[in-house]
Write a structure and sequence with these properties.
Order of helices and strands: HEHEHEHEHEHEHHHEEH
Oligomer: single chain
Shape: globular
Distance between the termini: 45 Å
Strand order of the largest sheet: 3-2-1-4-5-6-7-8
Helix content: 40-55%
Number of helices: 10
Length: 312
């Protein structure tokens, strides 16, 4: 359950992904959705497939991914859905996914960077990067870089605007005081789980804004935006059993359901109202306000350079 009035777009916090894409024909378009084996990622994949988009699900758990695909195909027998393995916490996995996607020969109109982790104990990824930052930001930063030329070619050849959607969070407001701890990403002594999550979500917005600026300067017909999906009950809290239990008990009163939670992603990815709009932050399928740190282009440039140094 979620209450709220309609914004300028005509949609509200209670609008569903099906509602915001009603009447939109995605036939001929191809999209990648990361983290599509559960939660809002699975719902995003379902609704895009329902609208005729060829969906490639990037998932860590292939069995869960195949189950989601099977459910989509049962509902939409004509749907085009592929499942490919992708672990955003591993740069090797990201590179293999991109290589396999290129080998498929598919075009790419829409890239939805959705996968994420939240509130894990301090952990380093396979590449020795703090897990929130590695999964939520660096993995998607690398993936986007590896797929960008395909997106540029698709936009040019199809004459259709490409869209990159970075799923951030209101939690970007809860980062460390300096925003991004460039000299302390892996500092266990100063680690705070919620701030580490907030830092990674701030990085999502800064990445979107900086990449959009790059593409604008190149004159490429691809937009990049970020968004807050809303407070949603999904399995993203799987690593914190106490918090997961509390949230589940309150969910039916305070949180969006998955259908509502996927709405803003689908709106930004497909709706004609967003055509030509880039470098913006959305919530509840409307333009929204982010923090001053999220709008800091110098911070965005510094993060870009830092991220490039990490991916090699």
């Amino acid at each position: 359950m979620w209450l709220g009035s309609k914004g300028p777009s005509g949609f509200s916090p209670s609008s569903t992904a099906e509602k915001v894409t009603q009447g939109i024909d995605g036939t001929g378009l191809a999209a990648i959705v990361t983290g599509a084996s559960s939660g809002i990622g699975a719902e995003t994949a379902r609704v895009l497939a329902l609208r005729g988009v060829h969906v490639v699900m990037g998932v860590r758990n292939m069995a869960d991914g195949r189950n989601v695909k099977e459910a989509i195909m049962k509902e939409v027998p004509t749907a085009k859905v592929d499942v490919m393995e992708l672990d955003l916490s591993s740069m090797a996995s990201v590179r293999k996914f991109a290589s396999d996607f290129h080998s498929s020969g598919l075009p790419l109109n829409i890239l939805i960077n959705n996968a994420g982790v939240v509130v894990t104990p301090f952990t380093l990824s396979q590449d020795n990067i703090e897990l929130h930052f590695a999964t939520n930001h660096i993995g998607h930063f690398l993936l986007t870089n590896l797929l960008l030329e395909t997106m540029k070619s698709t936009a040019h050849e199809s004459k259709n605007e490409g869209r990159i959607v970075c799923v951030s969070s209101y939690g970007h407001r809860s980062t460390y005081p300096e925003g991004i701890r460039f000299d302390g990403i892996n500092d266990k002594s100063g680690y705070e789980t919620w701030r580490a999550y907030g830092q990674s979500k701030l990085a999502n917005i800064l990445h979107a804004n900086e990449l959009n600026q790059h593409l604008k300067e190149e004159g490429v017909d691809i937009t990049v935006n970020s968004l807050h999906p809303g407070a949603i009950m999904t399995n993203i809290l799987r690593d914190n059993s106490l918090l997961n239990g509390i949230v589940r008990s309150l969910a039916k009163y305070l949180l969006k359901n998955v259908q509502q939670g996927a709405a803003t992603t689908c709106y930004v990815a497909m709706h004609p109202q967003v055509k030509g709009v880039g470098g913006e932050y959305f919530a509840d399928s409307n333009l929204a306000k982010s923090t001053s740190q999220a709008k800091d282009m110098e911070l965005a440039k510094k993060l870009w350079e830092f991220s490039m140094s990490l991916i090699g």
